[in-house]
Amino acid sequence: MQSWLPFFVIITALAVVLQMVILALMYVQFRQMNERMTRIASDFHARVSPILSRLQVLVEDAQPRIAGMISDAAEITYLARSQAQKVDRVFTEAADRLRVQLIHADHILTGVLESIEETGSKVRRTLLSPVQQASAFIKGVKTGLEFFRSRRRPQERSSETQDEELFI
Fold it and tell me: Each residue of 104-123: pLDDT tens digit?
């Protein structure tokens, strides 16, 4: 067993050396990769930094305008809402007034039509009744005159009719 001991010690030493070489290579690779990443980050930063600064300037310039537009939009919305409420109020009041006026006009027209009907009835009673009475009176007088005429004429007629009867 002692003979194997130096052999294992040598193998262990070789494994440790091999691990050390691998670790050293990994360290070198990581360092190179770190330098590349640093260069890429620097290039990226160099390229993006002017864009970001321009963008920041644009945002700073546009921010008051955007804030003003938002403020104006809020004010326009408020004014539009208040105007819509006013228009609604005006139309509601106008509709109510129109309804009241229509009711009033209906009452007036109903009263006028009732007055016209009543006046027509009174005119019929006042004018037509006397006219009918006058007409009846005239017819009575006419009938009376015809009656008196017919009394006189029948005698004259009777002689004429007698002459005519004799003639036939």
Answer: 999 999 998 998 888 888 87
145 burial (CB, 10 Å; 0-12 / 13-18 / 19+) is exposed
Which pTM does this prediction carry? 0.38
* Side chain identity at residue 160, one-letter code: E
Record the tokens describing residue 69, joined without a space: 């537009």
pLDDT at residue 133, rounded to an integer: 80
pLDDT of residue 167: 55
**Is the torsion defined by CA of 114, 115, 116, 118 positive or negative?**
positive
